[in-house]
Amino acid sequence: MGNKSQKQAKGEKKRKPSHEEQIVLRDQWRRAWLAAALLGSAMVARGEIGLLIIEIGHNETPYVSDEGFITGVWAILLNTIIGPVTVGLMVRFYGSKLEEGDWGLQSPLPVESQEIGHGAV
């Protein structure tokens, strides 16, 4: 048994976060969710690679039928259209909140650290 199981067996209760802590945690979760959704939506729209792979699978293997090929092409086309639209809408409506989060704009390095070779080139 781990230490946590032993504490629960003794009857100790888990401390509930205060109202202020809950607000901070909820805000952090929302910012992280927005950043993750933006990154995921931006990665979806790589349709040319998907078309190339499904075409190879259809032409050179017996695994992709005609119906599967058509379904795959439609899915790739929809993702290629929906991904950039989603990114644009998220940036338009949630851009300022994304800047505030952990994945937002980074502060530039001080000049003295760039002079000694630790800055970006």
TrEMBL record:
<feature type="transmembrane region" description="Helical">
    <location>
        <begin position="32"/>
        <end position="54"/>
    </location>
</feature>
<feature type="region of interest" description="Disordered">
    <location>
        <begin position="1"/>
        <end position="21"/>
    </location>
</feature>
<keyword id="KW-0812">Transmembrane</keyword>
<protein>
    <submittedName>
        <fullName>Uncharacterized protein</fullName>
    </submittedName>
</protein>
<keyword id="KW-0472">Membrane</keyword>
<keyword id="KW-0406">Ion transport</keyword>
<keyword id="KW-0050">Antiport</keyword>
<feature type="transmembrane region" description="Helical">
    <location>
        <begin position="74"/>
        <end position="95"/>
    </location>
</feature>
<dbReference type="GO" id="GO:0015297">
    <property type="term" value="F:antiporter activity"/>
</dbReference>
<dbReference type="InterPro" id="IPR038770">
    <property type="entry name" value="Na+/solute_symporter_sf"/>
</dbReference>
<keyword id="KW-0813">Transport</keyword>
<dbReference type="GO" id="GO:0006811">
    <property type="term" value="P:monoatomic ion transport"/>
</dbReference>
<keyword id="KW-1133">Transmembrane helix</keyword>
